[in-house]
Specification:
3-stranded mixed β-sheet; about 280 residues; mainly alpha
Length: about 280
């Protein structure tokens, strides 16, 4: 008999304190952004850019992720529900759940385009190549948060590592959230290792393209192990997550190819400013 893993974690960190509704998902979500800001600050210091700009990127990222992910869920998964007079106001009720990673990715790409327009020394692709490193780590944390919430579960499975989500239905299932979380952690180390080796000499668009291919390519694979999120996906050969991943992978291949052309030459490395990134007292 297989010894399945019983998963009965309370989504709230302090369930006995009713006035302190702190959830593991929210903590992990925030932790991903905070560590990401620290990583970007280190990258900026290495490349003689203002370390303080990492805080500005954090603001762009948080707003873009929440808005993009929410609108992505509304448009891609449940437009018939939300675009009705009775439920339209629920579009703004993010705390009730319903975020789509594809929408979050689109939101981040658009937000950083506007960020880069205000900073000529930080081209759009230059920023994207660096931001995807902490974004991959944030994806690891967010998917682990889904596991803590017992949501986005896998299909029923008879494997030794299957999880029984007692807060859901007590059926042994693939821990699809864990599959994705560990995948994104591995992608974080791959991207970080490439950047550590090439740094400022990295052709523009290469890491961004690789991120799209790896993240959404693996997302396409893991969707085969996950339950469909909405009813209309039943009977589809590929679900919505897979259909949205295809153009992302193709876009990634384009940026990888582009990184081999002269147009992808890295921007000039700025001269070191002795006053830059100094602590102000």
């Amino acid at each position: 008999m297989l010894a399945f893993i019983t998963w009965d974690v309370n989504p709230e960190i302090f369930p006995s304190i009713s006035w302190l509704p702190v959830r593991w998902y929210g903590l992990l979500f925030s932790l991903g952004f905070l560590i990401g800001t620290y990583i970007m600050a280190k990258i900026f210091v290495r490349e003689n850019r203002p370390e303080s700009d990492a805080d500005a990127i954090l603001l762009y990222m948080v707003v873009a992720t929440v808005i993009g992910a929410r609108l992505g869920h509304v448009v891609f998964y449940q437009p018939d529900y939300y675009f009705t007079p009775a439920h339209f106001i629920e579009i703004f009720q993010v705390w009730k759940g319903g975020l789509a990673s594809h929408g979050g990715a689109i939101g981040i790409i658009i937000a950083l385009y506007y960020y880069a327009k205000k900073r000529p020394d930080q081209p759009w692709l230059w920023i994207l190549d660096r931001i995807v490193i902490p974004v991959a780590l944030a994806g690891c944390f967010i998917r682990f948060g889904n596991l803590m919430n017992s949501e986005i579960v896998g299909k029923p499975a008879e494997v030794a590592w299957a999880f029984i989500f007692t807060r859901l239905d007590n059926i042994p299932r693939h821990p699809a959230q864990l599959y994705e979380s560990l995948t994104y952690l591995g992608i974080f180390f791959i991207l970080g290792g490439i950047y550590k080796k090439q740094g400022p000499a990295l052709p523009q668009g290469r890491l961004f393209g690789l991120f799209l291919v790896l993240v959404f390519g693996m997302r396409f694979v893991w969707e085969f192990f996950k339950e469909n999120q909405v009813g209309f996906e039943q009977g589809m050969e590929f679900n919505m997550g897979q259909l949205l991943s295809i153009p992302a992978v193709l876009g990634g291949l384009y940026f990888i190819w582009r990184s081999t052309t002269p147009a992808a030459a890295p921007p000039p490395f700025p001269e070191k400013n002795p006053n830059l990134n100094k602590d102000k007292k």
